[in-house]
Amino acid sequence: MTKITIGQHYPTDSIIHHLDARVKLIGTIMYIVFLLFVNHYAGYGVAALFLTGIIALSKIPPRLIFRGLRMIVFILIFAAGINLFFTAGETVLFHFAFIRITLEGIMMASHMAMRLILLVMGSSILTLTTSPIQLTDGIESLLNPLKPIKVPAHDIAMLMTIALRYIPALAEEMEKIMKAQKARGADFDTGGLIKRIRSMLPILVPLFVSAFKRADELATAMEARCYRGDINRTKMKAMKMTRTEFIGMGVMICFGGLIFLTRLL
Amino acid sequence: MKAQTNRLNPQPNEGAEETSPYIIELRQISHIYNEDSVFEKRAIDNVSLKIKAGEMVALIGHTGSGKSTLIQHLNALLKPSSGMVLINGKDIHTDKAKLKSIRQRVGLVFQYPEHQLFEAEVFKDVAFGPNQMGLTEEEVNTRVKSALEVVGLDESCYHKSPFELSGGQKRRAAIAGVLAMRPEILILDEPTAGLDPRGRDEILSQIKHMHTKLGLTIILVSHSMDDAARLTDRILVMNKGCIICDGTPIEVFAQGEMLKNIGLDVPQISSLMTCLHEKNSNLPTGIFSVEAAADAIMKLVRP
Asked: Does residue B212 belong to any structural domain of this protein?
């Protein structure tokens, strides 16, 4: 329970890790959008090559990236299956009772599968190479231009940071409370669904009480230290656009261009 | 006095064949957190221990010495990585279905137990344990009432919300929640942490009462050498997952130097008496309460 990790940051020393979080955020969004435009196998080939390059640069063990795929295995099978069996097409390859597999169906299913796999692998690079703190900093900075229309960029980022910071603390608290209630004879492992949900009550009530108390204490402590949001606040690690960042953006644009070229094939 | 003993502990022992003279026995238990990973930590290292029924034992040690881990083995919240835990001479891990009855017989009060109160009323919260045991409503009510009486909460508190009580009252309500299950063994993890001196004295005198009047076997986990010396007749000292010292307060606190080395200390009054003893060798050492010290000094001044 205490081993909950949010995101899956894999700290190491690579050019992708050092890249500004904003570039990585925008780059990931661009990658996802371009992927949706692919309509030819060559496009997936380009994307796969591009991804391989990025993974090599990031020095992340590939098994970590494949591990992320385990979570979507079911979605993958489901989506591919639906496309395989229910795509209307002319070239029927296999027909038995109500099962009809067409060439178009196979094409659709393989497109879908490749798209999903590339999507998940690509976006996991963002969370693997960027610490949650950098990520929230990046989001804050990207939302900053929206401040004139009253988007509370700093507050959103601060909320995310605090939430991330307190997840391990809450997990620990929950484990403690569970043990204490078990010592009083509580039983969380047997009984039907309703009984199990009811048995969560002795955990949830104390957990909420302590969470509210903690939040209240934190707010008081922040006020006592004159926290006023981002007014006159500077960052210890200021984000800077250097040559690497511009090269990174350039690479992404080139990648987009290649993807659109494959559409012409 | 006798009647009260029976009231809180009516069932002598379900198994008459139990012959072990020890109510608790640990045989070479070790506990390793996160075994086979980089974070591997040996929290309990080959601990053997025997405790007789009706004993009152203090378990002291520095933060991280393994005290809390050790006591969670006694009611099967944790399973030892190796070794055996016996309650009344029986291995508690042989039958998984019996864990609930073990937890009822070995009452464990965690640190800051008031954090686990969850019901809207004190009475209902204390009734949680007995209700889980599947007792009749009448039986539950008698148990809850007698448990609340033992910890000194009167009827005016029964239907209050736990959050309306004072810190000391909350803690006593939480202790009552464990007592209401009528355990034979009561383990308290730092029951006085964070209380004011008055709340502390109240809780400690009630614990003493549970031991002498109700005949419970008590293990008191404490940081306070003074409390340990004053209340108990046997002290276990833990350091780095091992029990390094086991004896009467006099035996344990005679090793002041060793205790200091592992970040503990002797009771304040004992160090004062040691200083005075150096000035006047007629004064005895091995005194752990202010009252006893006053008596000894008075004897010397006015023989």
From this structure: yes
* Among B residues 218-257, those touching chain A with beta carbons less than 8 Å apart: none
The closest CB to that of A202, out of B72, B109, B118, belongs to B118
pLDDT digits (tens, 9 = 90+) for B228-247: 888 888 999 999 999 999 99
Q: How far is CA B64 from CA B41, B69, B263, in A?
A: 11, 9, 11
Residue B192 lies in a domain: yes
The yes-or-no verdict on residue B258 having pLDDT over 50 is: yes
Residue of B39, B40, B73, B116 best to disrupt the A interface, most CBs of A under 10 A: B116
B181 CB near a chain A CB, below 8 Å? yes
Quote the distance between the C-alpha of residue B180 and its chain's center. 16
Using a CB-CB cut-off of 8 Å, the residues of chain A touching B100 are: 185, 187
Cα separation, A199 vs A203, whole angstroms: 8
Residue B279 exposure: Cα atoms within 13 Å on the Cβ side: 6
Find chain B residues with C-beta within 8 A of A184's C-beta: 103, 116, 128-129, 132, 177-178, 181
pTM given for the model:
0.73
Neighbouring C-alpha atoms within 13 Å toward the C-beta of B99: 17
Q: Tell me the CATH number at B61.
A: 3.40.50.300
Q: Give the number of residues written for chain A.
A: 265
> Residue B256: which residues within 8 A CB-CB, separation 6 or more?
B265, B266, B270, B271, B274
Evaluate if residue B163 carries a pLDDT over 90.
no
Count of domains for chain B:
1
Q: How many Å apart are CA B68 and CA B189, to the nearest integer?
A: 7
Whole-number pLDDT of residue A1: 36
DSSP A87-102: ---S-EEEEETTEEEE
Closest CA to B234 of B115, B60, B104: B60
- Residue B29 within a domain: yes
Instruction: Decide if B175 contacts B188 (C-beta within 8 A).
Output: yes
The three-state secondary structure class of B222 is: strand
- What domain range includes position B102? 22-266
